[in-house]
Specification:
128 residues, alpha+beta, two-stranded antiparallel sheet, globular
């Protein structure tokens, strides 16, 4: 795979393979702009962030996460000129190593079927 991307892109996942990202917990999220361009704003001489329209939209969308995903609570977050950091708290009763046999069967999901992360209450679905 490294030959395919000429060592330009990370070809292996940096996610912890033994972790289920639907488990309850606090997740530290970083989202970067394309090519690290300063889309979200700039820091003014008083060390305050002057938001662009894109920065204002990013702020609004982040604050809407709990209304779209009721299993998520927001904690602290900050938007910088070319990236943002935030803490998301997953609280859907899906505790680590807990087997939940009451979940309904999910159909669809394309070739991944039931393993499609977009069909479950997890971090991948929220960030998407």
């Amino acid at each position: 795979m490294n030959k395919l991307f000429k060592n330009k892109y990370l070809s292996t996942s940096i996610r912890l393979q033994s972790w289920d990202y639907s488990w309850d917990g606090i997740y530290f999220i970083t989202i970067c702009t394309q090519n690290m361009k300063h889309y979200f704003g700039k820091i003014n001489p008083e060390d305050k962030m002057d938001f662009t329209e894109a920065g204002k939209i990013a702020h609004q969308i982040w604050e809407l996460i709990p209304s779209q995903f009721p299993f998520v609570e927001l904690d602290e977050f900050i938007i910088m000129p070319n990236h943002m950091h935030g803490l998301l708290i997953l609280n859907n009763g899906n505790q680590m190593y807990k087997s939940d046999t009451t979940k309904k069967e999910i159909t669809g999901g394309g070739v991944t079927g039931n393993k499609n992360p977009m069909l479950h209450e997890n971090i991948s679905r929220v960030i998407r």
